[in-house]
């Protein structure tokens, strides 16, 4: 079981900003997972992998693909208090779910 | 309500690694919070702030202080699959909790 979080590389997020957006996406997608999946993922060490998304279009494509496959997912849009315009999509999380299912959606993305 | 996550600056984590460790800490501390606190924090937009901790000693001092004040908190120790030695403490999350309570523990730390 794993969760993959894809974050945009094209909007110049600082390191702390990036980490906060990834954490938002992670928690939101986690809450959509079944209790059994949550439990198994945590028991295995709640693996999280952060990868690169080239831009807004790729972010939404990932979310759509995850949805069609029935995987928990969440896109985060920034509240815009700092650095970015309000409503800017920043990151999408896919899973927790079985590794092979997540890889079918995010397997071709590079590690951040 | 907010959650502050302090991550170490002295162990050379890459951006993706940092984000994953922050997300681990965030989720783990979140799960220690009361249901009512969780609900309120999410309703307010689940604010997360990432700040700098100078090293292992400061990380544990933050965790200890949070514990003594009865705030949800969690220290993450890396599984050591990549970049770091197994068991290396990387990040600590404090909250979600009322802003003033969290600030008493992490208020003097710089934004990441």
Describe what you observe in this structure.
- The structure is a homodimer of 112-residue chains.
- Chain A is an alpha+beta fold and 112 residues long.
- Chain A has one domain: Bit1.
- Chain A contains four helices and four strands.
- Chain A has helices at residues 15-32, 35-43, 56-68, 99-106, and strands at residues 2-8, 48-53, 73-77, 89-97.
- In chain A, strands 2-1-4-3 form a four-stranded mixed β-sheet, with helices on both faces.
- The two termini of chain A are 20 Å apart.
- In chain A, 48% of the residues are buried.
- The interface between A and B is medium-sized, with 24 and 24 residues.
Describe the structure concisely for a colleague.
Two copies of one chain form a homodimer. The first copy, chain A, is an alpha+beta fold.
